[in-house]
Amino acid sequence: MVAGAYESGALAHLRLLAGDPEDALAILGPWLDAEATPALTVRAELWVLAALASDARADHEAAAAALERALVIAEPLGLRRPFCMFGANVRVLLRRQIRIGTAHRSLVDQLLGELDPHARAAAPHDTYAETLSEREAAVLRFLPTMMSNQEIAAELFVSVNTVKSHLKAIYRKLDVADRREAVRRARELELLAP
After folding, report:
1. Which of 95, 54, 94 shows the shortest CA–CA distance to 74?
2. Using CA atoms, how far apart are residues 164 and 106, in angstroms rounded to an integer?
3. From CA 151, how far away is CA 95, in angstroms rounded?
4. CB-CB neighbours of 123 under 10 Å
5. Domain 129-188, architecture per CATH
6. What are the tens digits of pLDDT across the range 119-171?
7. Which of 29, 76, 126, 181 qualifies as a FRET site for 11, CA 20 to 30 Å off?
């Protein structure tokens, strides 16, 4: 049985941590195709891993191209986790991406702010009473899109009822009544890109 995209990403990450970027890229290869990996969050994560593996091989051009592909996927949905989960190594790639040029400068700047431990300590999203759980934040990032609850559920591999439960919690925590207000309030709190 062939491992799924998510499992392949985890395995590639382990290979990368073990100092084997070639094997990591070989594992990622079949899954980088858009049709092979339907979940956008997983696809973005795989491209970030490909960028890290290419960088470990000192192939900076391939690393920049892979990182740009991840940014293309992430920006419309406001995805941050695929970058932030790899920490300081991604910060180096993002800084390099600014030097060579990117079509996603605003997102790169936001990610660098989130990856900077000093900036995180004073982040404005810590100023509201209840913080969102990781899963609630994931659902929140889909709200500015035109995706239905069913489409969000499919993207996150959860049930529609789970998405609805997260939406209720988001509305309660942000003190809003509907999706539009939630997006507006989240942008005010800098939980979503403007």
Report:
1. 94
2. 30
3. 33
4. 14
5. Orthogonal Bundle (1.10)
6. 444 444 444 546 888 899 899 999 998 899 999 999 999 999 999 999 999 98
7. 76
